[in-house]
Amino acid sequence: MSRCIPTKRLLSESLSERIQNQTTARQTAPQPLGATDRRRQFSDVYRISKSDARPVLGTLDTVRMTFVRTRISAAAGPARPFRGQTLSQRFSRSSRVIRSPGRAGNLTVTASKSPPIHIDRQAYAAVAQSAFVKNMDEYRAMYDRSVKDPDGFWRDIALENFHWETPPNEKHASFNFDVREGPIFSSWFEGGRTNVAYNALDRHVQAGNGDRACFIFEGNDPGRTYSLTYAQVLAEVSRVANWLRSVGVGKGDTVALYMPMVCELPIAMLACARIGAIHSVVFGGFSADALASRMVDCQSKVLITSTAVMRGKKAINLSHIAREGLGIAAQQGHRVPNVLVHRNEDPALDPALGALGDWEPDSYSIWQDVVPGQSDCSDVEWMDAEDPLFLLYTSGSTGKPKGVLHTTAGYMVYAATTSKFSFAMQPGDVFWCTADCGWITGHSYLAYGPLIVGATNVVFEGVPTYPTPSRCWEVIDQLKVKQFYTAPTAIRSLMRSGNEHVEGFDLSSLHILGTVGEPINPEAWKWYHEMVGKGRCPIVDTWWQTETAGHMIVPLPTAWEEKPGSTSLPFFGVEPVLVNEKGEELEGEAEGYLCIKSSWPSAIRSVYGDQDRFETTYFAPFPGYYFSGDGARRDQDGYIWITGRVDDVINVSGHRIGSAEVESALVAHDSCAEAAVVGYEHPVKGQGIWAFVTLVEGVEHSDDLKKELVAEVRTQIGPFASPDIIHWAPSLPKTRSGKIMRRVLRKIASFEEEQLGDTSTLADPSVVEMLIHFRGK
Ligand code: 6R9
Q1: In whole angstroms, what is the distance from residue 759 CA to residue 751 CA?
Q2: Which of 85, 122, 224, 594 is the 20 to 30 A CA-CA neighbour of 29?
Q3: What residues are paired with 692 via a beta bridge?
Q4: Is 440 in the pocket of ligand 1 (CB under 6 A)?
Q5: pTM for this prediction
């Protein structure tokens, strides 16, 4: 049987509809996140509902603030929550509102093109000193070689910057991205043997840099801070590695990690890497169910967890959730034989939370009891280039989360090389990536990449707004952070807190600002550049994914001009293409599906235990290409602008959530007959979750039931996936063949029902009216 699956059939209706929809929407409505306006002067008309109406005249800031306040006081319903945000994304702060009726009706806003970005050329020149690519010519020369001679390009980098127990072959790279040609695979650095933890730690200690700070821990409460040198981290990693070996863990075994952002998390990851065990980090915000399903899927031999953690003012009892997760896993037939619990010694924690309650004492070990007694020397397990390094579960448009598999050498070389080039990172730089190690960003740009380069990494346990929205700026000032890497959602939330929280701190140590996770709107970009960077720091807007494991499209600092909202050009060896519905490549200025044409060292190797799903998800939609799930546009300068997901993945605060996952959590509630979940624009989170819920016959809707449904999602996935809006839906818009028309739901959730388009294929067109009627109820 041929492996080829026709493109048309696999492209879900919603996928193709979605991109068409995005294109038509753009002509008539405010542009989506991340897009910019190229015209000099434009105006838009917004409808203002009665409850939002008040006389407003002034700059957009005033208007937005007015809407924000309106929304907060209008607790009864969604009250057009996205309206203010749409305005703020579309217009710069200095835009003038030219007509405002002060009553229900039309509001007209006119604006001039955003002023050019202010760049402090002298400061940029100083940054350029440490940059590894100085200009476009240098980039072009390196890029051309990287795609024409990937074997030579990557082998040179590999031999120059890493330790190899056995060097890779001269011809070491091979791949197949075409389902018609046979199984999909990528293989890099064939013949090479190495160890990632050795490259991250031993190599620096042996070079005499053991005293350099490796981690600076910044606790949830200010003042609870300490640092660990490379030599200290190596010793602790060795002790944990020895403990793991003592309980029988070895090469190829899987270890689940469910921990907060304390130094012991990256230490445990590195300990696994040292002995060849495959780690699977589960973000500390996931529920017991989610933890259990991941432990069952990867058949983890060990769980390493923590007692509890304070995040902001909130205490999270991790060991309680972990214990529940272990119970659920056992019910599903997988008993995790060994559990190691790190006692979080934060004095702000209620001791009862760390007491482990009635958890059978012989069913777990306490880190502080069993790790210190281990030897601080441990043998390194030399790994073949393609031996697995880790699994990380991520959400897709269908079914349960996928265990994305990454392997040793390609991941190591790519994570470290992108760290170095994208952040102009030199050994000893104080680098702060605010991501949690539970996500890919915390893997590649906290636990691995910067350590291999030899930087000093801030490990931040808390949240950016605690105890005040000045926290990040205070830490940057105190620790003299050189590169700061965070997500647009954090930037927007800090921007909204007001400039007074940034003023008064010395941020002159900053050289480079980074962003990741979702498209950054030009307004937030400018604020980051001007208010935080004072025009002195290039912004590296890095597009990549769990599956790519490292930066794919990224403006290399000072090498070329940045455009707010664009991720610009591909990293070395990356060949991005835009394709149309038929899978044909689009040239020049164009918009389409973002695919990658050839393999790169840290490409996803498989979906753990499910090669078929791996191929169907990423390679079947457009044979010959890796399909990212994102849409993108290329401008006349060849810059790439990511327009967002074109599948059913919702990006909430930079976290990927599959609409199918939320739907299946909702329907698990006895009262829910059917659910359909879509994303909608959210002022801080980027996207929020809007759930249409049909109740079982005879069940009355109520606010209490809404709470129960939200609680169900929190239990099954985790609090970060809570729906923002539950919309009672007596029935859902379906085609005659019973397929839910999400396009219609998205329009209703964005108050754009006037642009519903063709609804003639709906089995019952009256559903739309009914849903509009129930909006906000
Ligand atoms: C690293 C990470 C991946 C999805 C990706 C895209 C979105 C990430 C972005 C971006 C626009 C950027 N995304 N970076 N969109 N600009 N700079 O976030 O991995 O959690 O797997 O999410 O995030 O939609 O497809 P992951």
Answers
A1: 16
A2: 594
A3: 676, 727
A4: yes
A5: 0.85
